[in-house]
Amino acid sequence: MTQRPATGSDPGPTTPHSPAPGPRDALTDVPGLRVGHATRRGDGWLSGTTVVLTEPGGAVAAVEVRGGGPGTRETDALDPRNLVQRVEAVVLTGGSAFGLDAASGVAAWLEERGRGVRVGPGPHQVVPVVPAACLFDLGRGGDWRARPGTALGREAVERAAVGGPVGQGVVGAGTGAVAGGMKGGVGTASLRLASGHTVAALVVVNAVGSVCDPETGVLYGRYFAQRPGPGGRVVWPSPEAHERARARLAAAVAETERRGAATVRPGTEEPSASGAPSAGRPPLNTTLAVVATDAALTRAQAQKLAGTSHDGLARAVRPVHLLHDGDTVFTLATGARPIEGAAVNEVLAAGADAVTRAIVKAVLSAESVETAAGVFPSYRELYGDLAPKP
Fold first, then answer.
1. What is the pTM of this model?
2. Angle CA(370)–CA(371)–CA(377) in degrees, nearest 5?
3. What are the backbone dihedrals phi and psi of residue 373, each rounded to the nearest 5 degrees, phi first?
4. Does the N-terminal or the C-terminal CB of the chain have fewer CB atoms within 10 Å?
């Protein structure tokens, strides 16, 4: 059982030499990367697509899939043993396997600009390789068939091309995300290392497991995330506040299951709209991430970074990597800064730290959502002023 400090807060470990967040504390702190969201809410919709776009010429990429129920596209192309050396975009999307169509919209946009793997002498002779992964959010807005397709993929990549701040919370692929009954969403974070390298993450939190310690109400990731200065203290809810929050969450989950059951046609096995377990059906979710660095990693090193970054997910979500999760981490290495020796280990460790911080920010940025299919309260609604700002 987790022990509560007598003061009600925990300053966390003293880490004077820990990496500091970058100027934006976002994936775009890695120069050359841009993020675009396409979001749909209302009229039965609660879904969207997020695109991470590189500069022309692309970045070294890799992927690690640890969930038992992934939905992906072009992940085999990222195996270091295979031909493709660099990619120009990564797609994260809602809509389960249907939503992978969004990547076709991104591929078409890249082809129009002559960007992709060159397969002939002509400027138009390219094949854009667009790795993608999807999460389960089907029916959470009320309409089972309201899910991303090629149009949303194109919208998201066009927004990425324009650039600008990275939206967090209920946007893009995080629009319909839910984590343990609470509203999930998109979060992003970055770390500047002593070596001068930057490591950053963008995460879409949509987990079967919980992001919240049931004993204390503290977000799991807060126990591990970098907390520089007094403003980063972990706030411990009082037992009374925690019990109220647990009761409200339980009521919301029950109401969601009631609404979800009402949408299932008699005689079918269609899952409830919540994606949570009901009437013997398994939960359906998935947490997705893109971890990026300006370090000149080899393809094998990028593959290792994808693996170590999963550790950050395991710190912030419990349990994780289940059969009905599709947990997937992509990595992008732009190669702008040379790297050698022990600095590679620092990048590998920072990937996990950036993922943990991004998960915390995603949950704290999310707002409550109610649709015809369910009630999804946010952490900030449940815990009010006790929830520190992201």
1. 0.90
2. 20
3. -100, -10
4. N
